[in-house]
Each structure stands twice: as structure tokens, then as C-alpha cells.
Amino acid sequence: MKIDVLTLFPDMFIPMLSSSIIGRAVENGLLKVNLYNIRDFAKNKHKQVDDYPYGGGHGMILAPQPLFDALYHVLESCQDSKPKVILMSPQGKVLNQELAKQLAQEQHMVIICGHYEGVDQRVIDKFVDLEVSIGDYVLTGGELPAMVLIDCVARLIPGVVGNPESTKDESFARGLLEYPQYTRPYNYEGYTVPDVLLSGNHQEISRWRLKESLRNTLKKRPDLLERAELSPYEIELLKEVKQEMEGS
Ligand code: 4GX
């Protein structure tokens, strides 16, 4: 996957693109990220990229010229099928695992990181296919949201995460939270590991994990349970969990 990022702060992306799993994906060539500084496209002599809002009001707006020229530049250098142009914005569709899966199918994305009070509407009207928000809170710029989007989409590209099972089995992959995990030692400061996990009985272990997954979801994110499609077996386990919770 190729991702072009238009930002006023390209340096913010360098640590994430050179570390850990994403760093390896970039090295492997599974992910190619091009960073473009919007300011480099400003044509006025002070390289100013923002201006006052028409109609008055506080704050500044990213002006159309630098963004139009940056977008013309990245779009003309690609003969491939039209890239998906995304603006990070609190007004966007809220990112979730389903949207991440859809975007992981794209060959090429262009991500625009807004600043100040936003970008001139004409940029959105002419170029933007999709506005994406990472949640209902306000940040100072679109860079952290873009990094969140890149991280969460890139790990779904085949080969980026070592074991593909680990993207299948996890929270949200099927609308439930994960079960508790333990590693050695068996006893740490008096806190021990549930014995079923040492039993070697794989059927019992699966049942325990599924049940704890349902328990976790019921306790922490009951909203997810309402949307999850549970099998009769899962409904039975959930009933057990609810009875145990009443008992305590
Ligand atoms: N999820 N922000 C973007 C400037 C801005 C405003 C309007 C475009 C349109 C955010 C979020 C977020 C703050 C980044 C405002 N750009 N982005 N910035 N939450 O809060 O994505």
C-alpha cells in the first residue's frame, strides 16, 4: 500500500514509520509512505499557508492554494487507479475496525492533516473522498489522527503482522473484548494463573476463554454485546456469566 501524507509537520511521522511493526513494513516494502510538507507548496514569499476566515471569526484556515498544488502534485505522479483522498477531521466518520478493514483494501491513500480551524471547503469539495475522525475529542492537528489511521490500517495488510491469526482473534475482530492473558511465572507475588490454562485440556481452555471474553465485554463494553451476533453456545455461556455476576 502507498500512502501520501500532506502535513505541516512531516517530522512527527518519522519515529512511527521507523519503529516496530510499521517500521518493518516500510523496510519490507509492504508499506510506502511519502511525506509532503504543505508549506513547500506555498507560492507567496513568506510561505504562509493559512489565512483569516471570510465572514470573520476566530482562528485561521488552511488556504486552498498550497493544498491544491500539493494534491495536484501527488495525484499527477500516479498513473494507477485513483487514490482514496482522506481528510483527518473531527467532522469525519469515526474510525473503527470495520472502516480500517475497508481502507486496508486500498492500493493508494492520500491523507491530509488539517490544522488551525480547518481547511478551505473548496479543498474538500474538489479532492476529498472521505473525512475520518479518530474520536469525539479535539486535537491540535491532524497528524496524530493520521498516524492512528496509518497504524491501524497498515497492520491489516497481509504480511505486516507476523501471525495473521493475531489480527483475526483479537478484540473487535468479532465484536467482543479479549479474554485475560497470562505468561510465566505461575505465581507472581501471590497472584496465580487460572489452573484451567495449565490443564492441557484445549476444549476447556477454549470454553474458559470464550466465557471470560463474554464476561469482559459484559462488564466493560455492554454496548458491543448488543451488536454482536452470538451463537447458541455463546448465549448459554453469557447466561452463566450473568448468573455468576448476580451471585456476587
Ligand atoms: N480526529 N483535529 C484536525 C483541524 C481541522 C478541523 C476541521 C480539518 C477540519 C481530529 C480528530 C481533530 C482537530 C484534527 C482539528 N482539520 N482529527 N484539526 N478528533 O480533533 O481527526
TrEMBL record:
Domain tRNA methyltransferase TRMD/TRM10-type: 1-226
Catalyses which reaction(s): guanosine(37) in tRNA + S-adenosyl-L-methionine = N(1)-methylguanosine(37) in tRNA + S-adenosyl-L-homocysteine + H(+)
Spans through the membrane: none
Annotated binding of S-adenosyl-L-methionine, by residue: 114, 134-139
GO term, biological process aspect, one: tRNA N1-guanine methylation
Subcellular location, record wording: Cytoplasm
Entry's EC annotation: 2.1.1.228
Listed InterPro entries: Alpha/beta_knot_MTases, tRNA_m1G_MeTrfase_C_sf, tRNA_m1G_MeTrfase_TrmD, tRNA_m1G_MTases_N, tRNA_MeTrfase_TRMD/TRM10
Database matches in CDD domains: TrmD-like
GO cellular component: cytosol
Main location: cytoplasm
EC main group: transferase
SUPFAM superfamilies, per database record: alpha/beta knot
Top-level taxon: Bacteria
Keywords carried by this UniProt record: Cytoplasm, Methyltransferase, S-adenosyl-L-methionine, Transferase, tRNA processing
Entry GO MF terms: tRNA (guanine(37)-N1)-methyltransferase activity
Function: Specifically methylates guanosine-37 in various tRNAs.
Family designation: Belongs to the RNA methyltransferase TrmD family.
Database matches in PANTHER family: TRNA (GUANINE-N(1)-)-METHYLTRANSFERASE (PTHR46417)
Subunit structure, as described in the record: Homodimer.
Identification of the protein by name: tRNA (guanine-N(1)-)-methyltransferase
Biological source species: Caldicoprobacter faecalis
